[in-house]
Design a protein that fits this description.
- This protein is of the alpha+beta class.
- It has three domains: 123 residues, Ribosomal Protein S5, domain 2 (2-Layer Sandwich), CATH 3.30.230; 147 residues, 2-Layer Sandwich (lpxc deacetylase, domain 1); 163 residues, Thiol Ester Dehydrase, Chain A (Roll), CATH 3.10.129.
- The protein contains nine helices and 25 strands.
- The strands form six sheets. Strands 11, 12, 13, 14, 15 and 19 form a six-stranded mixed sheet that branches. The chain has a six-stranded antiparallel sheet with strand order 20-21-23-24-25-22. A five-stranded mixed sheet has the order 2-3-9-4-5, covered by helices on one side.
- The longest helix is centred in the C-terminal third of the chain and has 17 residues.
- The protein is globular and about 70 Å long.
- About 4% of the residues have low confidence.
Length: 450
């Protein structure tokens, strides 16, 4: 187990806040063991502090805000991501305004601050939290999941409404990969969002000096893109910062599709809830399953999922661990080699129609991607050695949503398994209604032990 770390000496930087537009000076200070990361408002009486904990998150509109009473700190995610990336457990962030300086929209300047200050090990051990069970959440079009993992890995797909700028990236994050792979990715926004942001009192300090602007297929920037996938890498930078709000280093594989600050922070809350949940000991008193029973189940799955077979929903549920409302397969109508066809009856009883959208119900596109991944997972799970495993949707590429799907439609899901390597599978899927394609994508999914 590694030691906790803090800074060797104070270091400062000045600039303007992205959303407030205020001039601000920021200083990183060393802190004792067990302090965590705290923000201190030196411009207010008593120099009040706000701990960087998810319990203190009060706003997630375009950035993450933490508050305690009337004291607020806006846009904390980039600073927090930098401390996580460098492995700094304890530090005080002093500010003379309500928002850290945005610098160039990335964490580049913050990296320079850490390098200038230096890092020192402390006397107490670091206690990272490693997930004990997967966590999955759906928030609008955002899908996020966290899986047990020895290190801290991120896999992310980002895209806009027209799927013009779909990007995918994955990285095993540590102090070596942080600055190289994520820290220099700048914040970005779409041109059509700017008017809305200004009307809502945001991006008062925004410019091409600290953000990339996307207008249709054009990318407006004062320098070339720093990474081929700079947009999705910045989304991952935000995830790192928001998840640091659990208050401990994290051992997990985070998988995200169209992440947002709201979803990032909700995932952080669910991780904290798992951290606090007492371990369930009932399984200790139950005898382990007989090996022969596992073999019988494996053979049964292999026999059911065979060429020419059709599977009703009860048979599907013997293969997939998903259950309503997240089971996206009602029936498998055809299997042949690496190809499979299934269907999902879309009814008004689907719970997501309550909010997507009232008076105009549309099946979320991300759930069509989930359906493709589940159907592809059935093909992977036909192999005896994969029986009992769970297929998790990891990423999507070349995503296209062509037509809305409404209550009463029957969604036909055609999938071809294109690549299998160990526990990772890739597939091409097309969803259609009445013979017309409504969505398509290349999906990546992973099998883990159930």
């Amino acid at each position: 187990m590694e030691q906790q770390q803090t800074l060797v000496k104070p270091v400062s930087f000045s600039g303007i806040g992205l959303h407030s537009g205020n001039k601000v000076s920021m200083t990183f200070l060393p802190a004792p063991v067990g302090t965590g990361i705290r923000f201190r408002r030196v411009d207010l009486d008593g120099k009040p502090e706000v701990e960087a904990r998810v319990e203190n998150v009060t706003e997630t509109n375009r950035s993450t805000t933490i508050s305690k009473g009337s004291v607020k700190i806006h846009t904390v995610e980039h600073v927090l991501a930098n401390f996580t990336g460098w492995g700094v457990d304890n530090a005080i962030v002093e500010l003379d305004s309500n928002e850290p300086p945005i610098a160039d929209g990335s964490a580049r300047e913050y990296c320079k601050m850490i390098e200038s200050a230096g890092i020192v090990a402390q006397t107490e051990k670091r206690e990272p939290y490693r997930l004990t069970a997967p966590i999955e959440l759906q928030l609008g079009e955002t899908y996020m999941a966290a899986f047990p993992h020895d290190g801290f890995k991120l896999t992310c797909t980002s895209t806009d409404k027209q799927s013009r700028h779909t990007q995918y990236f994955t990285v095993e994050l540590d102090t070596k990969t942080w600055e190289k792979e994520l820290a220099h990715a700048r914040t970005f926004c779409f041109f059509e969002e700017i008017e809305f942001l200004i009307k809502n009192g945001l991006v008062k300090g925004g410019s091409l000096e600290n953000a990339v602007i996307i207008r249709d297929d054009a990318v407006l920037t004062n320098e070339p893109l720093r990474y081929p996938e700079e947009f999705v890498r910045h989304k991952m930078l935000d995830i790192v910062g928001d998840l640091s709000l659990i208050g401990r280093s994290l051992g997990a594989h985070i998988v995200a599709f169209k992440p947002s600050h709201a979803a990032n922070c909700e995932l952080a809350r669910q991780i904290v809830a798992q951290m606090r949940k007492p371990l369930v000991a009932a399984q200790t008193f139950a005898p382990p399953p007989e090996k022969s029973a596992v073999v019988v189940e494996s053979k049964a799955v292999e026999t059911v999922v065979k060429d020419g077979a059709t599977l009703d929903v009860m048979q599907v549920m013997k293969i997939l661990p998903h259950r309503p409302p997240f089971l996206m397969v009602d029936k498998v109508t055809w299997i042949e080699g690496n190809k499979i066809k299934a269907l999902k009856n879309v009814t008004m009883n689907e719970p997501y129609f309550a909010g997507h959208f009232p008076g105009h119900p549309i099946m979320p596109g991300v759930l069509q991607l989930e359906a493709i991944a589940q159907v592809a997972g059935i093909l992977m799970l036909r192999q005896a050695e994969n029986a009992g495993k769970i297929a998790y949707f990891m990423a999507a590429e070349e995503v296209k949503w062509r037509k809305p799907v409404h209550p009463g439609d029957t969604l036909i899901i055609d999938v071809e398994l294109t690549k299998v390597r160990g526990k990772i599978g890739k597939a091409k899927g097309v969803c259609s209604v009445d013979g017309d394609p409504v969505s398509e994508a290349q999906v990546t999914f992973m099998l883990i032990d159930g």
